Amino acid sequence: MGLFIMRLFVAAAIFFGLIGAVLYWQMLDGATPEDADYQFPISQMRALIDASNAPLPQAVNVEIISFDEAPLVAAHAGFNFQPFALANSSYQVKGAAGDIVIDAAVDDAIFAEWKVGKDAKFHAEAYSRMIDAMSAADAVLVTHEHYDHVIGVARHPDPAAMTTKLLLRSEHIDVLAGFSEDGVLAPAYAALQPADLDAPRLIAPGVVSAPAPGHSPGALIFLVRTESGQEYLIIGDIVWAMKNVEKAWGRPRVLQWLFFKGGEDRAQVQRQVRALHDLSKREPSLILLPAHDHAYLKNLLARGELGDQFE
């Protein structure tokens, strides 16, 4: 009997140990490499801005198109079940000669389908301002090809006018049909050719893009320098919460299985998170702009470090 109990105890210990290991692996482990072997090409991007020798943008504005709430564990590995305020945002760079819009957030139909929290809210006026700003912009780009960053392109009411403004990678173009209202690519988009965005590129005075694949194959970052000298780094979804950058800690693995379906290179993203952490420590005046951290964006607005609403 004693031997049976001992074997039962050992079996239970192994079972619960395996459960604990799986739980830690999937939910708790967000560690990033201590030695950041990933470097964003910030120096090269700055050199392109320096060499342009043209009037710099006047401001960077944000539109928070919608608000939702999810447990923080969705953004930051660990048992963090306090609410995380989730924004869906778009950025406008107000240039001396023309404007640039970066990221085209979801419309009301998609938001209604995907919202999570009971207090979720879609701001129709903000979405309308974004669409109008896209129509008036000199250039429209996206940080990556996920639905909540390209819907405004795929469902823009005047795709013919957009064709002269869009600077998209092939990965971005490839998803447009799937995100259109009827699943069919707008005829005006049929002849869209990928823009050359495979290396750091000056998009306009003070605005440089650079490839940053990881969260998605077509991911881009954008460095913006305004006439005041303030610099912004638009980072898309490398992190959803700025707490990830502050703590050098990533998303839980289970999120990749649930939502990204193998499209995210976790190891690469973890290196990028560490690189952002180190960069923010070295350059605290550089303002990082994620797409989804509602509280962080609201704090930047309150401090006057971002413009509220598109002009």
pLDDT averaged residue by residue: 89
Poorly predicted runs: 6-13, 15-25
Which structural class is indicated by helix and strand composition?
alpha/beta
Order of helix and strand elements from N to C terminus: HHEEEHEHEHHHHEEEEHHHEHE
CATH class of the largest domain: Alpha Beta
**Quaternary class:** single chain
CATH superfamily of the largest domain: Ribonuclease Z/Hydroxyacylglutathione hydrolase-like
Please give the CATH architecture of the largest domain. Answer: 4-Layer Sandwich
Largest sheet composition: 6 strands, mixed
Residues in helix, %: 25-40%
Instruction: Report the radius of gyration as a whole number of Å.
Output: 21 Å
Distance between the termini: 79 Å
How would the global form be characterised? globular
Proportion of residues in extended strands: 15-25%
SSE diagram, text form:
Elements: H1 2-28, H2 42-52, E1 59-71, E2 83-94, E3 99-102, H3 108-114, E4 121-122, H4 124-136, E5 139-141, H5 147-154, H6 159-162, H7 170-174, H8 176-179, E6 201-204, E7 207-211, E8 220-225, E9 231-236, H9 242-247, H10 253-260, H11 266-282, E10 287-290, H12 294-302, E11 307-308
Parallel strand pairs: 1-11, 3-5, 9-10
Antiparallel strand pairs: 1-2, 1-4, 2-3, 6-7, 7-8, 8-9
List descriptors.
311 residues; 38% helix; 20% strand; single chain; 11 strands; 6-stranded mixed β-sheet; Metallo-beta-lactamase, Chain A; 5-stranded mixed β-sheet; alpha/beta
